[in-house]
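#struct-help
A.M.: can someone run this one for me? Single chain, 317 residues.
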Amino acid sequence: MSNPGPVAQADLAIAEPGNPPDWQPAFAVCVTTMNRVDTLAACLANLARCEPPAALVVVSDDSPEPAVRAANEAVVAAHAGVVYLAGPRRGVCANRNNAVKYCLEHAPKCDYVSFVDDDILVYADFFAVARQHFASLPVLQRRMTMLTGGASSGPGLHECKPVRLSFTGYFKEGREPQCVNLHASVFPLALFTHDLWDENIFFGTEDAELSLRALRRGYRIDLEPALCSRDTMPGGGVLNGAGAVDGLTRYQLNCEAARLYIGVKRYRLIEPSLSRCAAFLLIYFGHLTLYLARRRALSQLVPIVRISKVWRAGVQG
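D.P.: on it. Structure tokens below:
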């Protein structure tokens, strides 16, 4: 593993004095929701059963209808200490940033943060498992380590394998973990003082992009098979239910747009290489053209590029 970058070194300085034997890190949870009142209620009820409990739970609500927002706010009010925020309604990354910024401003004593969508149920020992793993690490590693568990759905439920992002932007099994399974993961909260979610990505592979930036700064990803969650609505996201447009769902459109944006950003800023960037673009558009042609959806090529905001991918910040 590479040496920690300058920002990571600054984060490590926080941990230098060490921790007492009964070290009790505090965990925050950012819950993103939109248009699913009952699902949010189940998510919060499940979090309330965790032992130890999260020190802070923040719900950021992207629901567009006032009636739904009012219902979600009532659900949150039924759980003491849980914070409700109206979301920015600019995509899931902006919604997560809305929640984590609150954590940074109002919970400076929280050490770690997790992100769950409203349809995710973490296991009751989620934070106990994370605490035990972090406590087993040398003190200087605790602030530079991200934890990830296994898959939250599918035939490989809870299988915890190292995952990387391939050259063309797909998840593949690797030798060392380069990406987290977002809904079974724990991040150092300090990471988000300098690396927020990229709001140019409306949806799709955004967790891999954040992981790549964190690794570049000297953070690391540890596998923790006992860190588990369950997706109660696999394939049932609000974008999947938005209906198809000329052969593609809104979910598929945004995933392809994100793959273009992340690929260019990766090879322009995160792992700079003009030759690799050019090769990525050549392969990406070749594959995309075939993908759209098979679905009789070539009319979606320009919208995908427009949605991707790829012209912003080479800009720092």
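A.M.: thanks! The two ends are 25 Å apart (CA to CA).
D.P.: also worth noting: Confidence is low (pLDDT under 50) at residues 1-17.
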